[in-house]
Amino acid sequence: MNPELINILSSIIANATPLVIAGIGETISERSGVTNLSLDGSLQLSAMVGFAAALATGNILLGCFVGMLVGALIALIVVAGNIELRQDQVALGFVLTLLCADIAQFLGQDLSGERAITMPRVNVPLLADIPIIGPIFFQHTAIVYVSYALIFGVWWWMFHTRGGLALRASGDRPETAFARGTRVNRLRYFYTILGGALVGLGGAAFSLAIKPGWSNPPAMRGEGWIALAIVIFGGWHPFRVVLGAYLFAVLRALASAIQRSPDIDFPLVLLNLLPWLLMIGTLVLVSSGVVDRLLRLLPERAQKWTRNFLRSDPPTALGTRFDP
């Protein structure tokens, strides 16, 4: 394979990593029934604070931890405001995303132009030497491998454990889950805070690994809304969310390549709209019944597996408050 193409694919995997981590975090939160709309501000604030902590101490691991702490605290405000103060989740998240974005830009003014602290590249022994696959998937910074572990770990927990069943029941049938002994609100606290911590880790990944440093306006501005869209596009399923994040990164790389090419004259606005148009088109196809008609051409077992993979129904109780 062309070395240039291998480098492009490798950069796509790396650049999609913050969206993968943030998308997985939001998926966990929404599966429990809590909508956390603070993602965009949370990503920016955790990226700024994580970079500041790493810059002050010279410890990248501490920067990631501080970023996770910021994301978890913001998520705690969302879930506590909903459960204890009986406020609307959407309103809380929207206010917080604006507030956190402004705080990040205000407090990060002195960080602009500071030397970047970058995570070192870590090649996975043996796997990194595999032709084609090794350079694409196993010659990255440690945060990329963390995203791999999260993808499979969250999928396994969500669909193959009793804890995962309780998580999904809290977002789909909280009354039934409560009747069977599940402490729904306690689970919502736990998974929303955990999801927020992962969003914070995604923010720290932006400023410490993907686009090292800090700038005003932040380089990751708007990424939180993209992560939210990817969760919906992915049907609240970890594998589909990850597929959406990688697909978004592919389309961005394609748009960037077209923009740099002197031989192709294509409107920049349409290039930026391309990922969103693809997501909307996919959602329309899945919900219109066209996909179901096409699936009838497949064997019965393949139909069932494919339909479950493409299913995009939101958790039934998503965004609603549960009163025991």
How would you characterize the overall build of this protein?
This protein is mostly helical and 324 residues long. It has one domain (3-236). It is 71% helix and 2% strand. It has 14 helices and two strands. The protein has helices spanning 3-31, 39-57, 60-83, 89-107, 133-137, 142-160, 162-172, 174-179, 184-210, 223-233, 238-260, 268-288, 290-295, 300-310, and strands at residues 121-123, 139-141. The protein has a two-stranded antiparallel ribbon. Helix 3 runs antiparallel to helix 9 (184-210). The radius of gyration is 20 Å and the shape is globular. The protein starts with a helix and ends in a 14-residue tail after the last helix.
Query: Which series of helices and strands comes N to C?
Result: HHHHEHEHHHHHHHHH
Terminal residue distance: 58 Å
Mean pLDDT: 86
Number of domains: 1
Helix share bin: over 70%
Strand order of the largest sheet: 1-2
Write the layout of secondary structure elements.
Blueprint: H1 3-31, H2 39-57, H3 60-83, H4 89-107, E1 121-123, H5 133-137, E2 139-141, H6 142-160, H7 162-172, H8 174-179, H9 184-210, H10 223-233, H11 238-260, H12 268-288, H13 290-295, H14 300-310
Antiparallel strand pairs: 1-2
Helix pairs in contact: 1-6, 1-9, 1-10, 1-11, 2-3, 2-4, 2-9, 2-10, 3-4, 3-9, 6-7, 10-11, 11-12
